[in-house]
Write a structure and sequence with these properties.
Largest sheet: 7 strands, mixed
CATH topology of the largest domain: Rossmann fold
Helix content: 10-25%
Low-confidence stretches: none
CATH architecture of the largest domain: 3-Layer(aba) Sandwich
Strand order of the largest sheet: 10-9-8-7-11-12-15
Order of helices and strands: EEEEEHEEHEEEEHEEEHEH
Radius of gyration: 17 Å
Number of helices: 5
Number of domains: 2
Structural class: alpha/beta
Shape: globular
Distance between the termini: 36 Å
Number of strands: 15
CATH superfamily of the largest domain: Nucleotide-binding domain of ferredoxin-NADP reductase (FNR) module
């Protein structure tokens, strides 16, 4: 059930030159949030920002009543959020969207591939899969080491590989050329820049591996009312905010083959 609720900022962390994280405390019973779901954040005090901003849930702990958001500074809305401090309030609509499939059992082998801000939802996914007895592999990619802000957070839950375009950290190249990418996994999850996700999806399809992609279309309302986030699927147009953002590539050939 979707809620509109104020959260209090418990922690704020600067992560490299472009990212920061907010740990938010719910003052009442928090709704469960599945990996891959997102929130719509109200940005107050910024005249240029009229609409809420969709942000992936980086981590969630319903027992503690906390949500963590990993945010990249890309415009006036996220820049305003980056100036918030501990103790301030943030209004969210949550939980929104359709998340990743997590009803897996050992010995299922899972690969999580993230790039840029698309790294954000994969931590919550890695923790949930780890709690189910799986030990997934996570591949994180970026142009430089500075653009991979939270690699250490994955270490308790997964085997972690890094790929950077400039070779400043880990494998020198894009994530799909990392040696760990070639393993015959049972399922691949990916979130990040569209060219990266399409490359991952095409490779998975060619190898007969189940794959889920989390799209990052512009989402203004978060509930399927404004239709600005519609994407073309094999079954017609679908709202990414409501029927996604996670889609199985078996329904997305039109998307990843173009």
């Amino acid at each position: 059930m979707k809620e509109i609720h104020n959260f209090t900022i418990l922690e704020r962390h600067t992560l490299g030159s472009q990212y920061f994280s907010l740990v938010l405390q719910h003052t009442d019973t928090m709704q469960p949030v599945s990996p891959g779901q997102f929130v719509e954040v109200l940005v107050e005090g910024e005249r240029e920002v009229m609409l809420r901003r969709p942000i992936s849930v980086h981590d969630a702990d319903p027992a503690a009543g906390t949500l963590t958001l990993l945010i990249q500074i890309v415009g006036p809305g996220t820049r305003r959020l980056s100036r918030l401090g501990v103790g301030e309030s943030l209004n969210l609509v949550y939980p929104l969207g359709h998340g990743f499939t997590t009803d897996l059992r050992p010995p299922t082998s899972a690969l999580l591939v993230g790039g840029g801000a698309g790294i954000a939802p994969l931590l919550h996914l890695a923790k949930v899969l780890s709690a189910k007895g799986l030990h997934p592999t996570v591949l994180l990619g970026g142009r430089t080491a500075d653009l991979i802000p939270v690699r250490d957070a994955f270490l308790p839950y997964a085997q972690v590989g890094i790929a950077t375009d400039d070779g400043s950290l880990g494998h020198h190249g894009i994530v799909t050329t990392h040696p760990d990418f070639a393993f015959p996994y049972d399922i691949i999850y990916t979130c990040g820049p569209t060219p990266m996700m399409k490359a991952v999806a095409r490779s998975a399809a060619e190898r007969g591996i189940r794959c889920e992609v989390s799209l990052e279309n512009m989402m203004a309302c978060g509930v399927g009312a404004c239709l600005c986030c519609v994407t073309d699927t094999d079954h017609g147009h679908r709202c990414v905010c409501k029927e996604g953002p996670v889609f199985d590539i078996s329904t997305m050939k039109k998307w990843y083959q173009c």
